[in-house]
């Protein structure tokens, strides 16, 4: 079996790979093709735009958080039914955990999936030097198949000719897929955590048409569609059979939109029925629940609305105090605190109040990077003694958590101890860290099992 697939990378962040990736996705979908999108690394925002353009969930592929076998199987699984698989890279092509490790890099994902690479280069202010840069990337790692290059921010027809000539003389085996002219109107707005989310900044149909036109006019899409890789079929479906599923409510709205799609898939495979709900707009939790999953997002941007939805806050607090299993991360964790602190320009807003602290926004980033978690005590997602991996990225911080609040995690970053985290109250576990359930095969089954035990305890 073969599939059309390629990875869109860049020498560095800010080269335009997201815009190029979206333009190619939009153009191929307009041609009637089914596009399966992927994103290297732990990012949540780019996948939201991928989903908006392709109509399919975008899947994170991360070789540090998850094993190579998991990444390969995930890629195979989510290409089923697709005509083309497009992977958007993260940072620079070879940027990962460190100078001597490819873990967590786009290059690692390219090797695991066998995908050829298309390099997006910001050619502003360069001509022959751009070819030298591409040649360095082409020869840096022999495992990488650099199939083509897209020059972005090209200033004129003369500039385009210089770039193509330099490439034909220095590196004829790497095709110039196209040259994209400068166009600031195509840029997507940026916020402190990166691009503004797709929920906050939905791409209008006219914008998507412009992106598709851009790709059709300036890129050799037919050449991209010739890139084929062999792909074994995925393993058989592992969805639990013979037992009734347990209903787990997952917060999914503009305030809570950061979740690894594979976390939900793994919960379903373990026997969960995923039911979406909105802490912003719903006045009650879905019926017949056995558990709640509160993912991350931007609750600080919707603090007033979240605070005003007293019925939902009350319902969640009653679920927690009634021993329903609840798992929350980052924004979901903040929602379970007493609320957001006020400031000179903002009033204080009250949240659910499970944890007796308040959160506050900081002018500078508080935390960024991969995290290793060792489970020091039992919780609804794991028994003591296991481990998992995830990522942390936020501009907020919480007040001092009382010592009597149980800490379930021992957190490290590249071997450096960061202290205890993962706060537990009854059957509720909350943390700033976005854990990838693919990093520990027992997490999803453990949470589903906890939910099933709750269901039995309620006699339902």
How would you explain this protein's 3D organization?
The chain is 29% helix and 28% strand. The chain has 13 helices and 24 strands. Strands 12-11-13-14-23-22-21-18-19-24 form a ten-stranded mixed β-sheet. Strands 1, 2, 3, 4, 5, 6, 7 and 10 form an eight-stranded mixed β-sheet that branches. Strand 15 (337-340) and strand 16 form a beta hairpin. The protein is elongated. It starts with a strand and ends with a helix.
| CATH T-level fold name of the largest domain | Rossmann fold
The domain tally reads: 2
Globular, elongated, flat, extended or rod-shaped: what is the shape? elongated
Name of the top-level CATH class of the largest domain = Alpha Beta
Binned strand content: 25-35%
Corresponding CATH architecture of the largest domain: 3-Layer(aba) Sandwich
Report the major sheet.
10 strands, mixed
Could you give me the name of the CATH homologous superfamily of the largest domain?
P-loop containing nucleotide triphosphate hydrolases
Number of helices: 13
Average pLDDT works out at 92
Q: How does the helix and strand content classify structurally?
A: alpha/beta
* Terminus-to-terminus distance: 46 Å
- What's the total number of strands? 24
Give the neighbour order of strands across the main sheet: 12-11-13-14-23-22-21-18-19-24
| Cα gyration radius (Å) | 23 Å
Instruction: Give the low-confidence spans.
Output: none
């Amino acid at each position: 079996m073969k599939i059309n697939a390629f990875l869109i990378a860049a020498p560095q962040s800010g080269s335009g790979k997201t815009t190029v990736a979206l333009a190619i996705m939009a153009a191929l979908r307009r041609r009637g093709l089914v596009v399966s999108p992927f994103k290297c690394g732990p990012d949540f925002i780019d996948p939201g735009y991928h989903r908006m353009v392709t109509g399919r969930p975008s899947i994170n592929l991360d070789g540090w958080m998850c094993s190579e076998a998991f990444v390969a199987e995930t890629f195979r699984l989510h290409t089923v039914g697709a005509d083309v698989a497009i992977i958007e890279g993260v940072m620079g092509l070879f940027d990962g955990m460190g100078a001597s490790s490819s873990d967590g890099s786009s290059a690692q994902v390219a090797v695991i999936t066998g995908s050829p690479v298309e390099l997006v280069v910001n050619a502003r202010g360069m001509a022959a030097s751009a070819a030298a840069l591409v040649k360095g990337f082409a020869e840096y790692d022999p495992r990488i198949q650099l199939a083509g290059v897209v020059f972005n921010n090209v200033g004129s027809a003369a500039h385009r000719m210089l770039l193509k000539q330099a490439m034909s003389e220095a590196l004829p085996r790497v095709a110039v897929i196209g040259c994209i002219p400068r166009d600031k109107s195509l840029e997507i707005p940026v916020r402190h955590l990166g691009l503004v989310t797709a929920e906050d900044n939905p791409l209008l149909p006219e914008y998507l048409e412009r992106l598709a036109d851009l790709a059709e006019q300036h890129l050799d899409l037919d050449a991209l569609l010739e890139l084929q890789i062999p792909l074994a079929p995925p393993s058989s479906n592992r969805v639990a059979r013979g037992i009734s599923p347990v209903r787990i409510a997952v917060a999914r709205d503009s305030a809570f939109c950061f979740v690894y799609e594979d976390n939900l898939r793994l919960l379903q495979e373990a026997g969960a029925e995923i039911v979406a709900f909105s802490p912003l707009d719903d006045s009650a939790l879905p019926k017949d629940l056995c558990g709640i999953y509160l993912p991350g997002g931007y609750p600080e941007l919707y603090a007033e609305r979240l605070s005003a939805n007293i019925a939902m806050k009350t319902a969640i607090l009653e679920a927690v105090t009634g021993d329903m299993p609840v798992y929350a991360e980052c924004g979901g964790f903040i929602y379970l605190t007493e609320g957001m602190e006020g400031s000179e320009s903002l009033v204080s807003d009250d949240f659910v109040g499970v944890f007796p602290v308040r959160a506050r926004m900081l002018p500078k980033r508080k935390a960024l990077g991969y995290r290793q978690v060792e489970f020091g005590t039992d919780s609804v997602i794991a028994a003591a003694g296991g481990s998992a991996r995830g990522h942390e990225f936020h501009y907020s911080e919480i007040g001092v958590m009382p010592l009597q609040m149980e800490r379930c995690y021992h957190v490290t970053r590249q071997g450096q101890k960061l202290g205890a985290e993962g706060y537990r109250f009854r059957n509720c576990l909350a943390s700033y860290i976005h854990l990838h359930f693919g990093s520990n095969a027992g997490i999803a089954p453990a949470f589903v099992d906890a939910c099933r035990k709750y269901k039995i305890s309620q006699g339902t």
